[in-house]
Amino acid sequence: MAGRIAVLGAGAVGGMLGVLLADAGHEVTLLASDRTSTGINVNGLTLRSGKYGELRAAIPARPWLTAPVDVLFVTVKAPDLLTALTRAPASLLRDAAVVPLLNGVDHVPLLRAAFPQSTVVPMTVAVEATRVAPGVIEHLSPFADYAISAGHREPTIDPAALLRRAGLTVDESAPDEATLLWRKLSFLAPFALLTTSALDALGPARQARPDLLDGLVEETAAAAAAGGVAIDPAAVRERLHSLPAGMRSSMLKDALAGAVLELDAIAGPVLRAAPDGAPVTRRVVAEIARPRDRRA
């Protein structure tokens, strides 16, 4: 069944998702800035992917939502969330599913407060993709893996089913939302902090500072445990060592572009929850936060 879908954010994740959902036959609207919306309305949206091929879609883009939808995917980055929410009036999302794909753990209660008459269904995504121009997305990783908790409240239209029909993989092995979000963060925080502190891709960064990677993994697992979620540090390290050496985190890309970083969304939960104060994470965050010309 085709659904009415809005995607809040037309960056790499949102643009890729919009193209795949439109290609699967859904009625998709992208919500983005005036400049980005104009570019997409003029030129359409293009996805270049080794997995999905090159897809083009004429998807309408608007600065704000103007009609009710069944599902709203929220794909903006954490520092942009509060501003972006003004593009999606809560009155148009009654009984809709609001599906955040943000990093971290703190956005879920915020979205439930902002959309009290909607069903907020957290999901996570593991993918490397880059917006190379407004409306042009390059999917760089061989995977695009989504996850949702097994115990999620199911709205009228199940977002997991939507994604599967669009050819995406959706894992439902997490028993609850906390496990879902900390599973993603336990991998993402070490990956993002290591590569951004090194200003280099994963392979060179992990080779140069293997002890740092181990410390970041251990502290993130300890923070998850403080929240009642069991994370196996050895499994996280194995996954990080199995990834292609050239992989770059989105935080590294933002740092190289001079953009605002998701430091609090990614490192904040670790700093706030780790029983020992997460000294390794704290040191790396301080290093990243320093102006680049002052770094050793």
Widest sheet: strand ordering? 5-2-1-6-7-8
Helix content: 40-55%
Largest sheet: 6 strands, parallel
Percentage of β-strand residues: 15-25%
Q: What is the N-to-C succession of helices and strands?
A: EHEHEEEEHEHEEEHEHHHHHHH
Number of strands: 11
Q: What is the tally of helical segments?
A: 12
CA-to-CA gap between the ends?
56 Å
Give the averaged pLDDT, no decimals. 93
The structure class reads alpha/beta
Low-confidence stretches: none
Short note summarizing the structure:
The protein is α/β, with parallel strands linked by helices. The chain has helices spanning 12-23, 34-43, 81-84, 107-114, 159-165, 177-198, 202-208, 210-226, 233-242, 250-257, 263-273, 279-289, and strands at residues 4-8, 27-31, 45-49, 53-57, 61-62, 71-74, 97-100, 119-120, 123-133, 136-149, 169-174. α6 runs antiparallel to α8 and α11 (263-273) runs antiparallel to α12 (279-289).
Name its key features.
alpha/beta, globular, five-stranded mixed sheet, 21% strand, single chain, 12 helices, six-stranded parallel sheet, 296 residues
Architecture overview:
The protein is of the alpha/beta class and 296 residues long. The chain has helices at 12-23, 34-43, 81-84, 107-114, 159-165, 177-198, 202-208, 210-226, 233-242, 250-257, 263-273, 279-289, and strands spanning 4-8, 27-31, 45-49, 53-57, 61-62, 71-74, 97-100, 119-120, 123-133, 136-149, 169-174. The protein is globular. The mean pLDDT is 93.
